[in-house]
């Protein structure tokens, strides 16, 4: 978040022009969408009559009610403290998603029965594939960043070709190229190592640019000063450059790990028993696809939240020097 504002001013959501503009925008959006055939139309039946026959009046009445409720919600939440506002909005959005899921008529006993296997087999595989991949990708990224910052033409050419190639191909294609292509050269590789290699090479290319930009964000004088007192290249990078570059590198690297966690589902196409593969397989047997897909989605989301909290804690640790 930004630094706290020291100038007192009226809360934006309490200004009349903002409320009216928000009301008009919400009204226009929902007026353009015909909600008379949904549960909202049934809820408004006492006002609009038969939803299917209400026409423009029904659409306007529904849009008007939604706009009023939305604006009242925003204005009332504006009186609470920041943390309370965040908690209320999260709770409201969560309830909306639960209401959305309820429309699928999910079999909760079936989900409860399969959930332990999804966690012990699928989630565990997803975590260790992603964890190993991010470690390898980080090592590749450091080497690639150093090569792209070097004056050695060969090293720069290899690093730039690598980043261009692996950022230019879809990850799914890279999975297929490694799993099906390497055996053509005589290298037989199992599904899990192939998936880890594909994820590592793909995300290593993206993270190379993250590390490069992080290192370049440090003033050149830091490098020159460390070299002038006799520090070697390795010592300069470990003790001077990287510690200062980490606050810049960590946020996008954390985002890459969270993204890799979800992209690991692509390795299911080569038979890796990760979360998405098991969710799809278990759902096919009884044609209860939505139960398993929603279960997998909730596990992915829960794991992402945990990683976001870890990332935020690491960022706060490295941002201590900037706190006044």
Short description:
The protein has 324 residues and is mainly α. The protein contains 13 helices and no strands.
Please, could you describe this protein's structure?
With 324 residues, the protein is an all-alpha fold. It folds into two domains: 12-103, no CATH class; 108-320, MetI-like fold (Orthogonal Bundle), CATH 1.10.3720. It contains 13 helices and no strands. The mean pLDDT is 87. Pfam families: BPD_transp_1.
Q: What secondary-structure arrangement, pairings included, does this model have?
A:
Layout: H1 16-31, H2 39-43, H3 45-48, H4 55-77, H5 82-102, H6 108-149, H7 153-168, H8 171-181, H9 191-216, H10 220-228, H11 233-263, H12 275-286, H13 289-318
Give the key terms.
324 residues, MetI-like fold, 2 domains, globular, single chain, mainly alpha
Query: Over the alpha carbons, how many angstroms does the gyration radius reach?
Result: 26 Å
CATH superfamily label of the largest domain: MetI-like
Q: Oligomeric state of the chains?
A: single chain
Percent of sequence in beta strands: under 5%
- CATH overall fold name of the largest domain: MetI-like fold
CATH class of the largest domain: Mainly Alpha
